[in-house]
Amino acid sequence: MKKVHINSVKPGDKIAKTILSETGHILLGAGLELSQRYIDRLKSMGIDMVYIEDKNTDDIIPEDVISDTTRRKAVETVYKTMTSLMDQPKVKGRASVPDIGKTFRDVFGTILGDLSGRKEVLINLANLHSLDGYLFHHSVNVAVLAGVIGLAKGYNRNQLADLGVGALLFDIGMTMLPKELWNKKTTLNPEERARVENHTEDGFNILRYQYDVSLLSAHCALQHHERYNGSGYPRKLQKNQIHEYAQIVGMADVYDALTSHRSYRQHYSPNEATEYLFAAGNSLFDLELVRLFVKHIAVYPVASTVVLNTGQIGVVSRVDPAAVHRPTVRIVQERDGTPLASPYEIDLRNHTSIVITRTL
To answer: Where does the record place the HD-GYP domain (predicted)?
Structure first.
């Protein structure tokens, strides 16, 4: 299969990887043949990238770091929790979700089980979902990213549980906002921006009143927009004043936001997002955390369609964790635009003059 922009998809193409709804349920299943109506519908839902079947790349299968079953269950749990809070009276800091701590420790335990079962974790967030489901899928992606970093740092079980619950629920304060502010396509006015920024304190107040959620988890909600140089909010904390869990969650939040399609902008490629994080080292984020984070990112994920400096177009078929910027690329189109009947592969580790210039 290969991952392509929705504008490159044509009627008759078949979905190769399931697309999920905002609730975590299957929106379009693998194997479905797309009509123009389906394509237009995907565009209207804000889905800009899809995996499609392709005879030249049918053996290329991107593997998410967690299973589809784990992801669907996690998204469904986040969705149910968030929407139940939205339906409650907006009494600041007094919202209640019975056993929320246990529920999310169990969810993160399943995520952690998937992550721990891998010999080498190279993050490829291969999930596709509707734009309306961003908040719920984003929370799960942030928890996955945070879990990888927690494992890399050697956190013990209790530390991982606190980090994981905090990561899954870091944006819970968004439930206190009018939904129209979540994906507003125009610039926020000062009053709206102040209201949105208050979601950090709203989230902290929700979580700190839950009997089975630790204060460390609650601080992920409070501090995830604080920045290393003191430019963040709500308290303009600096460096080690920001708890490490919140620093990890904040970095994961920014990475997943950059690589996700939003109503007001196109997504960054994983490579562009990691470059942004490196540039923000010891400014927005602790540089050592950035280095550890980026070490586990597949900057050119398997099944990505890429353009080489030779003018050739190919699909990433393999990634060596020790050389993430130099994947193996299956060439499917020559520089003159000729499609290849018999594609061939180039291992960029062995061809130093050939580089990827962009992803499609």
So the answer is: 114-309
